[in-house]
Amino acid sequence: MVDENLNLLVPNEEYLKAGIHIGTKFKTKYMKDFIYKTRPDGLSVLNIEEIDKRIRILVKLLTRYEPSDIVVVSRRENGWKGVKKLAEMIGVKFFAGRYPPGLLTNTQLKDFVEAKILFITDPWPDRNAINDALKIGIPVIALCDTNNAANNIDYVVPCNNKGKKSLGLIFFLLTQGLMEAKGLHNKGQAFPFTVDDFTAE
């Protein structure tokens, strides 16, 4: 349960509506501490307070880096619109779609990219990017669902990393937080974008 008096980034109903807390029927040992309960239909439910807290920490972590040193990767199509909007507003480098192996490690590649931190939407489809990050020793931040293995992840943000509404809300909150932290938007003023601007059709 969520304490209604808690100061969440968005009202609890917004999180619930986006299904940010709905996991899968599978749960790994890495994710068990983030699971609030298992529903009668077998789906695991993630702790919304923990999701909110970790999105806040994610913003603080990424604020330490220049946008040009951050690479965001999403093989999962439901994350493409959010990733592109984040990149447009903040200036991070991104790959929406298939990540070419060696992109962070092979200086001979035409599209070679230097990075100091990697942020991915799902450790399974984005595993090639994780492997590259491990080779060059940069931290990896990942959105992880209940079925994800997080053994090569430095910082986990537990959430439904498959649903378009959930991913849209996460990228909306991340962009808003980073824009405020970097002085690109004044906290308290109406944010010029909606969650729909980050959510796949």
Give the helix/strand layout:
Layout lengths: L11 H7 L16 E4 L5 E3 L1 H16 L6 E5 L5 H11 L2 E4 L20 E4 L6 H10 L3 E5 L10 E4 L5 H18 L20
Parallel strand pairs: 3-4, 3-5, 5-6, 6-7
Antiparallel strand pairs: 1-2
Topology, number of strands: 7
Mean pLDDT: 93
Query: Do you know the CATH topology?
Result: Rossmann fold
Radius of gyration: 16 Å
Q: How many domains make up the 3D coordinates?
A: 1
Estimate the strand proportion. Answer: 5-15%
Structural class: alpha/beta
Weakly predicted, low-confidence segments: none
Describe the structure.
- It is a single chain.
- This protein has a single domain, classed as Rossmann fold (3-Layer(aba) Sandwich), CATH 3.40.50.
- It contains five helices and seven strands; from the N terminus they run H-E-E-H-E-H-E-E-H-E-E-H.
- The chain has helices spanning 12-18, 48-63, 80-90, 127-136, 164-181; strands at residues 35-38, 44-46, 70-74, 93-96, 117-120, 140-144, 155-158.
- Strands 4-3-5-6-7 form a five-stranded parallel β-sheet, with helices on both faces. Strands 1-2 form a two-stranded antiparallel ribbon.
- Strand 1 and strand 2 (44-46) form a beta hairpin.
- The longest helix has 18 residues, at 164-181.
